[in-house]
Design brief:
Blueprint: H1 10-40, H2 46-49, H3 55-90, H4 95-110, H5 113-134, H6 140-168, H7 171-179, H8 184-214, H9 226-237, H10 240-273, E1 277-279, E2 286-288
């Protein structure tokens, strides 16, 4: 037990319980008022939701979802590569490598992502167009600006995540590896990174979810993503709230699937990391059981 933490007594537990109940009732009351207001505005009438039964509208929204997932997938892959590269730079013992890596990651972490995307679109849109053309985007300059902006921001965050994960591995393990003659690259590849991945995985998946949600910022530069397709639907049918509910539900489902994937991968890595170690039949070395 920590000396800085006292176990709550009966009176404190009752106060926490009462506070939780009151807070829950307040939230439910606010939700009830919101639903009542929406119902009075006709949001839940059948005609507001009928457009989503049209196969044409469904295909249109799915096309927007495909564009969103395409931008997210490219951005995440590039951000992971960027993060690994600059994390290695930040861990370098050579100051002429480490200092520029620190400057780049801190710079792009500090710039608001929306401003970064706008700057790339307005200033370098034509230069970034080949990225969109490579994946067959209908708006290649917007695709390039969005993907590069997401790569720079999320890659900088991931670089710090990777660095922190590697430094979280006990120092004694790397020292033991150096003592048997392994080079730094071998220690990183064989000792530190496999263990750090288990530490970093939840944060990595969380950042991937952030990247997926941030693709919605492509709306401001004309990228044909799920949000812009949703805007076209409610402009056509005048059902803005139902359309936004459907779009939000799609984002929630995709992000929930990513979270479930993260949980599954984390369990697999934990099971692999806790397998018993036993001596081989010859009595030399060890094998993982």
């Amino acid at each position: 037990m920590s000396a800085l933490y006292d176990v709550p007594g009966p009176r404190t537990r009752r106060r926490v319980l009462v506070g939780s109940i009151v807070g829950t009732l307040l939230v439910l009351a606010l939700l009830g008022l919101a639903v009542r207001q929406l119902a009075s505005n006709g949001v839940f009438k059948h005609r507001q939701w009928e457009p989503f039964t049209d196969p044409g509208v469904q295909r249109f929204l799915l096309a927007g979802l495909a564009s969103t997932l395409k931008a997210a997938a490219v951005a995440i892959v590039l951000a992971l590569a960027f993060g690994v590269l600059f994390a290695a730079g930040r861990l370098s013992e050579r100051h002429w490598i480490r200092l520029p890596a620190v400057a780049v990651t801190e710079l792009f972490r500090a710039i608001p992502l929306l401003l970064l995307i706008l700057f790339l679109f307005l200033g370098l849109g034509n230069q970034l167009k080949p990225i969109g053309q490579l994946v067959g985007s209908s708006v290649p300059n917007a695709f390039g600006a969005l993907v590069v902006g997401l790569m720079l921001y999320n890659g900088s965050v991931l670089a710090e995540t990777f660095r922190a994960g590697i430094l979280a591995v006990p120092r004694g393990q790397s020292e033991a590896a150096y003592s048997i003659g392994l080079r730094k690259s071998q220690v990183m590849r064989m000792i530190l990174v496999p263990q750090a991945v288990r530490i970093m995985l939840p944060a990595i998946i969380s950042q991937c979810v952030v990247a997926l949600k941030d693709t919605a910022l492509g709306f401001v530069i004309g990228y044909e993503d799920l949000l812009r397709h949703g805007k076209s639907v409610f402009n056509e049918y005048g059902n803005i709230v139902p359309t936004m509910i459907v779009v939000a539900a799609i984002y929630i489902v995709i992000n929930t699937l990513l979270t479930l994937l993260a949980s599954w991968l984390e369990r697999k890595l934990r099971q692999r990391g806790t397998r018993p170690v036993r001596l081989d039949p010859a009595g030399v070395g060890a094998t993982v059981g």
